């Protein structure tokens, strides 16, 4: 990581008991930081961590802040609040970025055409189920234009929309919509990296099988339908199981 009194980029990394993954995530940020001529800081936001995540992050030169919320958007916003950089980039702790990610982000922001954006997603390994998952993600991103995974924008623009939309699930799409709408008011586009991508962790698939999300959709169809009509009890329980209580 590049340390400087003049930090330009703050990379925000929410982490819940991520001692197995935090070092490789920071390493990927460090490689990307070495490709830009500006100060870069990595902020690990420890969320209810009971393992060595903070210790390992500090040893890698990252800053560490804590947030105990059971809402990933709130955790990311805690990192943004602590950030010293003018540009915010977010990535989850079990994922990695490709080495020219930060350079491409700066280029797109400095062009004046983009309010911010996301990045394409590529799994770290593939199978038939993961290829199908990948194709569905690509189709969804292409149809909506709301690329997520790695978020990037100027801190002032994140602040202008109130940071990440604080909801328990679906915060990524909601935030992308808010950022895109704000960009339109300023005559700017919501963009997507073209030369770099998010390397998406397959750990949940490794733990629970590559058809995991397809099985969840069928198994929890009733809860998903009820949530669409306002009854979120079963949906919130599913979100806790898959995200907030996963990796205890």
From TrEMBL:
Q: Quick one: a GO cellular component term?
A: plasma membrane
| BP GO annotations | carotenoid biosynthetic process
* Record-linked InterPro entries: Glyco_trans_2-like, Nucleotide-diphossugar_trans
**Which keywords describe this protein according to UniProt?**
Carotenoid biosynthesis, Cell membrane, Glycosyltransferase, Membrane, Transferase
Q: Which domain of life is it from?
A: Bacteria
Which parts of the sequence belong to the Glycosyltransferase 2-like domain? Answer: 10-116
Q: Which Pfam families match?
A: Glycos_transf_2
Pathway membership, UniProt: Carotenoid biosynthesis; staphyloxanthin biosynthesis; staphyloxanthin from farnesyl diphosphate: step 4/5
- Keyword Transferase assigned to the entry: answer is yes
What GO molecular function annotations does the UniProt record carry, in alphabetical order?
glycosyltransferase activity
Tell me the SUPFAM superfamilies matching this sequence. Answer: Nucleotide-diphospho-sugar transferases
Q: Where in the cell is it found?
A: Cell membrane
**Family according to the record:** Belongs to the glycosyltransferase 2 family. CrtQ subfamily.
Protein role: Catalyzes the glycosylation of 4,4'-diaponeurosporenoate, i.e. the esterification of glucose at the C1'' position with the carboxyl group of 4,4'-diaponeurosporenic acid, to form glycosyl-4,4'-diaponeurosporenoate. This is a step in the biosynthesis of staphyloxanthin, an orange pigment present in most staphylococci strains.
Q: What is this protein called?
A: 4,4'-diaponeurosporenoate glycosyltransferase
Query: Which species is listed as the source?
Result: Ruminococcus flavefaciens
């Amino acid at each position: 990581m590049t340390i400087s009194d003049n930090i330009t980029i703050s990379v925000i990394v929410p982490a819940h008991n991520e001692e197995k993954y935090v070092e490789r995530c920071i390493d990927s940020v460090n490689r990307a930081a070495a490709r830009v001529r500006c100060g870069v800081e990595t902020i690990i936001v420890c969320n209810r961590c009971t393992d060595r995540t903070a210790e390992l992050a500090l040893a890698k030169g990252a800053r560490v802040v804590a947030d105990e919320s059971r809402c990933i958007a709130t955790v990311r916003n805690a990192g943004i609040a602590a950030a010293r950089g003018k540009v915010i980039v977010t990535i989850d702790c079990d994922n990695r970025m490709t080495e020219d990610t930060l350079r491409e982000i700066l280029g797109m922001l400095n062009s004046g055409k983009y309010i911010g954006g996301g990045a394409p997603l590529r799994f770290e390994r593939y199978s038939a189920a993961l290829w199908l998952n990948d194709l569905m993600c690509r189709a969804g991103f292409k149809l909506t234009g709301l690329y997520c995974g790695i978020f990037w924008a100027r801190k002032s623009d994140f602040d202008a929309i109130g940071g990440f939309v604080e909801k328990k699930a679906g915060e990524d799409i909601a935030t992308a919509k808010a950022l895109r709408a704000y960009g339109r008011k300023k005559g700017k586009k919501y963009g997507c990296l073209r030369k770099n991508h998010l390397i998406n962790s397959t750990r949940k698939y490794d733990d629970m099988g590559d058809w995991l999300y397809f099985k969840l959709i069928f198994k929890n169809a009733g809860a998903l339908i009820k949530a669409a009509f306002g009854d979120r009890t079963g949906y919130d329980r599913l979100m806790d199981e898959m995200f907030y209580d996963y990796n205890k």
